[in-house]
Amino acid sequence: YSQFIRIQSTGIDMEALWALLTDKDKWALPYPDFVLSVNGGAGNFLGFSRKFSEKLKAAVLNITAGVRKVWIFTHGFNVGVAGQFGQVLEQASFVGSDVSNIFLIGISTWGNIYNNQMLEDDENYSKGGATLPGEHMRRYDYEKGELDKDSSLKRLDKNHTHFIMVDDGSEGCSGREIQLRTELEKFVVTKMRTIGARSGRPCIPPVVQLCVEGGKFTLLTAAQAAQEGTPVIAVRGSGRAADQLVWADE
């Protein structure tokens, strides 16, 4: 099952969030060797050709091959590029590839999640499984209900292993998680540098942002990442925002 936390949009203690992610008695994620921040289409997503999808799958499996621990950040929804990455990992697992060292982490705006009430309803939790103090097992139906085609709400992707849900009180608004995502990406590099120095084995996991298609919020996320020194790679030919970034760079 996937694990999630709902947090405020500002004033987050990054040390506390890091402890949630990595402490053995919490989410227990291994320290990452590589962090891929996937930034791209979620709303007016135009879709990929089969050829492009196959290239994406090959690239992801190549990046994540071997024993390296990989964190992949996405917007966490079952549409667009995040949905594509979820499918890639699901298909890889189905054919026997070892994806146990890959952790797909959705960083989403709480008010943009369809049926988010299922995650806070006290009557909607599972009795099975062991939980930590203060935790509950909740059932989220990834398929329940019809979405209005004009709605800004989106379903979560079932293939993500973890979710960080940013709640600023808004409803149906996108992009409220961008600042936290940028700060977290920067913090991971700083934290791993410190851990490496203490162990005498300097280790700074490469954090790279990959822009695939996308719109306004893709451009905003890429801009904030670049300002913090995170390398940004725009995939030429994927469409919209990514192609605009390539054009601007050239």
From TrEMBL:
Endpoints of the signal sequence: none
Domain of life: Eukaryota
TRPM SLOG domain segment(s): 3-248
A GO molecular-function descriptor: ligand-gated calcium channel activity
An example Gene Ontology CC term for this record: plasma membrane
InterPro entries xref list: TRPM (IPR050927), TRPM_SLOG (IPR041491)
Protein name: LSDAT_euk domain-containing protein
